Amino acid sequence: MSDKKGPWEQYSRNKERHFPLGLLLWVALLLAVGGGIWALFVSFPGRISPRKYDYLYVVGLVAMLAMVSSGLIFVRRINLGEVIRNISIWTGLAIVLLLGFTYRSELTGIYYRVIGELVPGQAIILEGNTIILSVSRDGHFYANGKANGKKLRFMIDTGASDVVLSPLDASRIGIDVEKLQFTKTYQTANGIGLGAPYRLKSLAIGSLEYAKFAVSVNKSDMVTSLLGMSFLERLQSFEFRGSKLYLRP
Predict the structure, then answer these.
(1) How do residues 173-211 score in pLDDT, each as one tens digit?
(2) CB proximity list for 201: less than 8 A, separation 6 or greater
(3) Where residue 21 falls among pLDDT bands split at 50, 70, 90?
(4) What's the pLDDT at 233?
(5) Pick the CATH number of 120-248 from 1.10.357.10, 2.40.70.10, 3.40.50.2300, 3.10.20.30
(6) Which has the closest alpha carbon to 195: 175, 174, 172?
(7) Torsion on CA atoms 26, 32, 35, 40, rounded to nearest 10
(8) Per-domain residue ranges of the chain
(9) Which of 13, 15, 88, 125 has a CA 20 to 30 Å removed from the CA of 224?
């Protein structure tokens, strides 16, 4: 009798010899990520708060990583160098995501600081709702805010007693300038100015928002609207420090 085996028996033996290396790699990756997360928890205690459901977010990130990397299960032939490289990449990505999530408040602050430098007038909001404004190239401080829900740009003017809207800005937020009564007088560098009292539904600069805020609409054209003392006096303090203006509610 011939010792030659049939094709089906040969296939069966090959199948039995197959070792699930891909599955082992996938499990090793998840264990490495889990170990990295545990090490971060130990190194930075208290950064994750269960009251804010932070643990659920972390579990979600790990589950997403497990799903994306599940293609490793189907790996049959393995290049050791490539495997080590891929595991390092996935582990590093998981750690970066976790660090980004853990320090999201600090990273958000950095983001706003960069935006504040690139776009003077953009409010940088710190803890306690303190707002920082950066000086503009012309030496003035500007604040991007909202009046009646519409975006407006104000120049900070401690010499102005009121918040003063330019006629163009007033029209932009829906005020019919033609129907206003210009009964208020102001002493300006160019002489006597006329303004019309008006009450906004809301005025907001960054996180600071006030309802039914009294302003004045200037009769003559202005380059920009002014954020005067009627707004600044509502704050606990405001401080010019170098190229920054700090507004503390």
Answers:
(1) 999 999 999 999 887 767 788 999 999 999 999 888 999
(2) 148, 149, 211, 212
(3) low
(4) 93
(5) 2.40.70.10
(6) 175
(7) -120
(8) 7-102, 120-248
(9) 125
